[in-house]
Amino acid sequence: VGLPKSSLFGVSPAELPFLCLGDVVRAHRVKATAKPPHFLNLWLQQRSAILRFQEASAAVADGHSPVPEGQDFVLQSLSGCEANTVTQKDLEMASSLHHWVRERVAHETLSSYLTSVQEFNSSRAVGRDLIVRVVEVREAERVMVVEDGSTAEPLSVEASKPQLAASWFFTNVKQGHWLKLRNVAPPDVVGGSGLARVSAATVTRLPIWSHDVTLRARALLPKTERREDHEAMKQEPTDDEARGAEVASAAGRRRVKEEPLSTPPAPAATA
């Protein structure tokens, strides 16, 4: 989301929240610029309104006060106006979109260039992606310390450029956040800081239920907890199994139906 006229709303780029993969955003009266096949830029105009639908449990984890039971989302304006025109239909659309992306991200990897911190340290390969948990944030140094469970020691990553993106990122990133770091550069031993480097503009915040995060979170558990977690997973069916499984009477085994992912419904045009 671009904010070329953010001063009209009293909102600076540094004040924008750290959106997470899976958040739903409603945009009214914006200028849209498509960059096929994957990108759509939304530019605010004088009468634009941008609203974030954040999963309630994630909002509480971010420090929001507890929400009433049955409330799926916490709404947050990204354009400086707390009043909104959200209807029940909007909430249903947001729920549908969130369910769709959760079904995808909970079962698919986010990148074909992923590597572990261990492999990254040993190979020093260029152009690889990492999915990591933030252990420590050194805002003044523009450095974050991260881990993924593959090494005993965490990895320090510098994210000092671009300057505006780095300023915004280190204002918002917190210990415990899960991040996808794209195109991480290995430490520059000759004349460099000796740290791995990533552009602050290519860091994505991830939900705890994403497939790649779940695998790494399990690796970070102590061995006893990991074993108990593994046993529990074998005994309890997943949500997909609960919805699509049939019991084979002869063998007593569970068979999971493969249900194709449906395309989310297209939002109705708004004025």
Quote the average pLDDT. 80
Low-pLDDT residue intervals, each spanning 5 or more residues: 3-8, 240-264
Total of helices: 7
User: Quick one: biggest sheet?
Assistant: 6 strands, mixed
Helix content percent band: 25-40%
β content, as a range?
Answer: 15-25%
Reading side by side through the largest sheet, how are the strands ordered? Answer: 10-8-7-6-9-11
In N-to-C order, the SSE pattern is EEEEHEHHEEEHEEEHHHEE
List keywords for this structure.
271 residues; alpha+beta; 6-stranded mixed β-sheet; 7 helices; 13 strands; globular
Structure, described:
With about 270 residues, this protein is of the alpha+beta class. It is built from seven helices and 13 strands. A hairpin with a 4-residue loop joins β6 and β7. Residues about 5-10 and about 240-265 have low confidence and may be disordered.
Short structural summary:
The protein has helices spanning 56-61, 88-105, 117-123, 163-172, 211-220, 223-235, 239-244, and strands at residues 24-28, 31-35, 39-43, 49-55, 73-77, 128-138, 143-147, 155-158, 178-184, 196-197, 203-206, 245-247, 254-256. With 271 residues, it is of the alpha+beta class.
Task: Please specify the SSE layout and strand pairing.
Elements: E1 24-28, E2 31-35, E3 39-43, E4 49-55, H1 56-61, E5 73-77, H2 88-105, H3 117-123, E6 128-138, E7 143-147, E8 155-158, H4 163-172, E9 178-184, E10 196-197, E11 203-206, H5 211-220, H6 223-235, H7 239-244, E12 245-247, E13 254-256
Parallel strand pairs: 8-10
Antiparallel strand pairs: 1-4, 2-3, 4-5, 6-7, 6-9, 7-8, 9-11, 12-13
